[in-house]
UniProtKB/TrEMBL annotation:
GO molecular function term, any single one: G protein-coupled receptor activity
Name of the protein this chain belongs to: P2Y purinoceptor 8
One BP annotation, GO: phospholipase C-activating G protein-coupled receptor signaling pathway
Gene3D superfamilies for the chain: Rhodopsin 7-helix transmembrane proteins
Domain of life: Eukaryota
Keywords: Cell membrane, G-protein coupled receptor, Glycoprotein, Membrane, Receptor, Transducer, Transmembrane, Transmembrane helix
Length: 338
């Protein structure tokens, strides 16, 4: 599972005797319970928040601008993680004993990593959409063409992520630990999952560089340009909200994804070449990456006054006149990132 990857890289489950630190990790009940409780909270907030967001985006939001299409894609990946987290919780609470077989282990591991990296790429796509709409508006006029590009972009994101993560789909990620009479899932990786140390280095570099570092740099560039443009050209309440939202997105991007990917790369290099480990720090950083899945609805939707008014209207907490509704839809069509 994503929550416990790269603890050790071993040749096979029958000839390797685990070190005391690794055995202690699997027997650390307090840490396992603490992380499971966090995952329970994340699961509840994720499913409720993203379920509501998906309903609003699909059935209550029109027109379907590129930003809305990207948000639907982001919400879909978050819901996939929300449905996978209960299996991770059960696995941990049973003492890291996986009972659902190799195929299910590979599938859920893929769901975890796909969520992280599709979320990162989708956030990059939203930032590009905002950049083009605000900084380069003359390039951003044809709505129909933009919709097609957005759909193709989502498909390309999934294709890129699945291509990089292909080794996870073709390997038995379970590992028998006779000393504890348990079978782990993606806690212990076999060294022969990839043919050489160079292949491992390429795999890890592709994940961190192409699926995190490049999107992070693009997202930062786009939002910095958006903030500079709005700060110079307008000081209306709507533009101020957009600036604050850009800051929040960058902050969450940095807090949720940067520590995990940096520690993943550092830990893997230390493990592959120096037989050392940063695994506990890496494992704790995963809690922050999972938090993103339940924060997305608040960041992208509830931070927007227009979306908040729609939520209140649907829940009969606040009624919108037809004129207000038309005004909101007009705003959305002109300012797709809002």
């Amino acid at each position: 599972m994503r929550g416990h990857s790269y603890a050790n890289m071993t040749r096979n489950s029958s000839s390797i005797k685990l070190d005391n630190a690794t055995l202690a990790l699997f027997q650390d009940v307090n840490t396992s319970i603490a992380i499971s409780v966090i995952y329970m909270l994340v699961t509840a907030i994720n499913l409720i928040g993203n379920g509501l967001s998906m309903w609003l985006l699909v059935f209550r939001t029109s027109p379907k601008t590129p930003s809305i299409i990207f948000m639907i894609n982001l919400t879909l990946t978050d819901l996939a993680l929300g449905t996978a987290l209960p299996f991770q919780i059960s696995y941990q609470l049973q003492g890291y004993n996986w009972k659902l077989g190799p195929s299910m282990c590979s599938l859920l591991t893929l769901v975890f990593y796909t969520n992280m990296y599709c979320s990162i790429l989708t956030m990059m796509a939203i930032s590009i959409d905002r950049y083009l709409g605000i900084v380069r508006p003359m390039m951003f006029r044809e709505t129909r063409g933009r919709k097609s590009i957005a759909v193709i972009g989502c498909l390309l994101m999934w294709g890129l992520v699945l291509a990089v993560l292909y080794p996870l789909m073709t390997t038995d990620l379970t590992f028998d630990v006779p000393e504890l009479e348990i079978t782990t899932c993606f806690d212990m990786l076999k060294a022969n999952m990839l043919p050489s140390t160079s292949a491992w280095a390429a795999f890890l570099f592709s994940m961190v560089f192409f699926l995190f570092l490049v999107p992070f740099c693009v997202t930062t560039f786009c939002y910095v340009r958006v903030i500079r443009k709005l700060a110079r050209d307008s000081k209306t309440a709507q533009k101020s909200r957009a600036i604050r939202l850009a800051f929040i997105v960058l902050l969450v991007f940095t807090v949720c994804f940067a520590p995990n990917n940096i520690l993943l790369f550092a830990h893997s290099v230390l493990r592959l070449f120096y037989k050392k480990s940063l695994y506990m720090a890496y494992k704790l950083s995963l809690c922050f990456s999972c938090l993103n899945s339940c924060l997305d609805p608040f960041i992208y939707y509830f931070a927007s006054k227009d979306f908040r008014q729609k939520v209140r209207a649907i829940m009969n907490l606040h009624s919108l006149s037809s004129a207000d509704s038309m005004k909101l839809e007009h705003k959305e069509s002109l300012y797709s990132a809002h």
